[in-house]
Specification:
By secondary structure, the chain is mainly α. The chain is 70% helix and 3% strand. The strands form two sheets. It has a two-stranded antiparallel ribbon. The chain has a two-stranded antiparallel sheet with strand order 3-4.
């Protein structure tokens, strides 16, 4: 029975999102929510509609309501989903305003904070997390702080990752698929979370039809934040399976951490300054092209995400350590490449 429901959930989410993306493209053009290729950082060659996250938002929560009988079989109550919905709505409102008026970073940050507050006010919390050394760590009053830091990290990871066609959409879709597989196992069986994760994966797949290179529409500010938010929330409500989501998002998260440290070392505000030094930009500079660059990220997300299905808590820590070593290797390699280019560049 659940197998059929899972199939219908994914198919419904895929079709509905794909169908809704068409009028979203028209709406974005009508409201002049357009990303112009007007700076060095932007790699697209033609004006492209923004605000694509609207199609994912409407599809995901419409189907959450439609499948509510399954989504409420576990420990979650309607008010939990309501807080989740309100938080997502805040992100879409903020995303629309930023796509339209290009808000300042401080103004942009207000909406993710409201999204987190709505979720916590809706009663979502983390009782405990697994201790890699054995047993559990009970959070108590620290739950809200951990949720806040986790969701800010996830949202800004997907926001900063959104620089290549289909990159965020595909990686988050893989994340939804991995959480579905994880919560479908006998040991961690959670049919409600499994179905919600498939709704996310299906929505990403449906949007990817239009977001694959060359993209006909972009996620926009709201969409890029929304996908990180939804994936982060699913990791929380699946019982604090943050390590699983981290394995999927490991390379992008470490890239964001490196970007922040690098900009701070240069004396620049990491959230106000932009450059072309993200990992996806570096892969493009190597000549991979957008599609191959995206597939590299997909491969990391899929391999390390699926590895989490077979690893215990300590094994996940080792896998995350391997990701850190890989990222350090990439940082050192590209730094040496930059140095070599600078040494061979003729001076005027």
């Amino acid at each position: 029975m659940f197998s059929l429901q899972y199939f219908l959930a994914f198919l419904s989410s895929f079709i509905l999102t794909a169908v809704l993306t068409v009028p979203t493209i028209w709406l974005a053009k009508k409201m002049e929510l357009i990303d112009q290729p007007s700076s060095e950082r932007k790699i697209h060659r033609q004006a492209t509609p923004l605000f694509g996250g609207l199609a994912i938002f409407v599809s995901f929560f419409a189907l959450v309501y439609l499948f509510r009988s399954v989504l409420l079989v576990g420990n979650l109550e309607p008010y939990h989903y309501f807080g989740f919905f309100v938080g997502s709505l805040f992100l879409m409102i903020g995303g629309f305003l930023d796509d339209k008026f290009n808000l300042r970073p401080a103004q942009q940050l207000m909406f993710p904070i409201l999204a987190i507050a709505a979720l916590i006010a809706g009663g979502v919390h983390i009782d405990k997390i697994t201790n890699p050394a054995g047993g559990y760590i009970y959070l108590g009053y620290w739950s809200s702080l951990l949720i806040s830091l986790w969701l800010i990290g996830m949202m800004y990871t997907t926001k900063l990752l959104d620089g290549v066609d289909g990159l965020v959409t595909g990686v988050v879709g893989i994340g939804g698929l991995v959480i579905f597989l994880f919560t479908s196992t006998t040991r961690y069986y959670q049919p409600d979370i499994a179905l919600a994760s498939l709704l996310l994966a299906g929505a990403c797949a449906g949007f990817l039809v239009f977001n694959w290179h060359p993209a006909k529409i972009f996620l926009g500010e709201g969409g890029s934040l929304l996908l990180g938010y939804i994936l982060g929330v699913l990791a929380i409500i699946s019982g604090g399976k943050i390590a699983v989501a981290l394995l999927v998002m490991g390379i992008p998260v470490l890239d964001v951490v490196w970007t922040i440290l690098r900009r701070l070392a240069q004396g620049k505000n990491p959230f106000k300054f932009a450059d072309r030094k993200h990992l996806h930009h570096r892969l493009l500079d190597l000549g991979l092209g957008q599609r191959k660059t995206v597939l590299v990220f997909y491969a990391f997300a899929l391999f390390f995400g699926l590895s989490g299905l077979f690893l215990q808590s300590l094994g996940k820590v080792y896998a995350l350590a391997i990701l850190l070593v890989i990222m350090l290797g990439l940082v050192i390699g590209f730094s040496q490449w930059d140095k070599k280019k600078n040494d061979t560049t003729p001076t005027a």
